[in-house]
Amino acid sequence: MRRLHVLVLAVALVLLAGPALAEKPTIGKPCVNCHKAQKDVLRGKFHSASQKAQTLQMQVGRHVWLVRFDQATQVVGAPEVKKIPRKKEIAVHYQMRQGEVYAKRIILKPPAKVPEEKLIKTDAVLRLVQGKGGEDVLLDARPPRRYHEGHIPTAKSMPLAAFQKLKDKLLPRDKNTLVVFYCGGVT
Predict the structure, then answer these.
(1) Burial class for 180, CB neighbours closer than 10 Å (0-12, 13-18, 19+)
(2) In the structure, what pLDDT confidence band is assigned to residue 15 with cuts at 50, 70 and 90?
(3) Tens of pLDDT along 114-168?
(4) Per-residue pLDDT for 42 more than 90?
(5) Is the distance from CB of 104 to CB of 70 less than 8 angstroms?
């Protein structure tokens, strides 16, 4: 009877463990726009951390990675692991130790740096919103559902997921035309 319980427990653990390490993605979909998959590097979003267990969870696609960290783990972009904001994009450079993933270095995605000349002034946005922008284009980059819930009246819907499909239709041929994207989150 005891062997049966142990066998059932072992099977349950295998089923609950999900995909094997090699089957899990190591780079999230948004990350592939700027990065390529690298050996011993995970790229995704920070989910949570346990200081007591010295583990963090990060989301890579639909999978969650459990990563151990210790005093030797270097954190770039935050004072320490517990100060990393939830859903922040991170890269974890890791090594395997006794079958577990250990973070050597955790790098937070830095904020985007936009040159001053590329920033739009409030009066120019007001003209776009009022439809007085001439040939200038205002594009809503949120998902279609959010666009239909409400949008700036002069904006056209161009969700990121449909960019390749819509770019020839919605982006102006003249590269000097002002194009303004807006979304519902931090940029």
Answers:
(1) middle
(2) very low
(3) 899 888 888 888 888 888 878 889 999 999 999 999 999 899 999 988 999 999 9
(4) yes
(5) no
- Mind listing the domains of the chain with CATH numbers? 24-108 (2.40.50.140), 116-182 (3.40.250.10)
Alpha carbon 62 to its chain's center: 12
Copy the structure tokens of residue 8. 């059932």
62 with 18: CB under 8 angstroms?
Answer: no
For residues 123 and 121, give the distance between their C-alpha atoms in angstroms, rounded to a whole number.
6
Nearest CA among 168, 187, 108, 171 for reference residue 135? 171
Q: What is the pTM of this model?
A: 0.61
Q: Where are the alpha helices (DSSP H) in the chain?
A: 2-17, 122-129, 144-149, 163-170
**Listed residue (89, 47, 97, 48) closest to 72, CA to CA:** 97
Determine contact, residues 42/25, Cβ cutoff 8 Å.
no
d(CA 24, CA 81): 23
- If one counts every other C-beta atom within 10 angstroms of the C-beta of residue 65, the result is 19
DSSP state, residue 160: G
> What's the pLDDT tens digit per position in 50-90?
999 999 999 998 999 999 999 999 999 999 999 999 999 99
Phi, psi of 132 (to 5 degrees): -105, 25
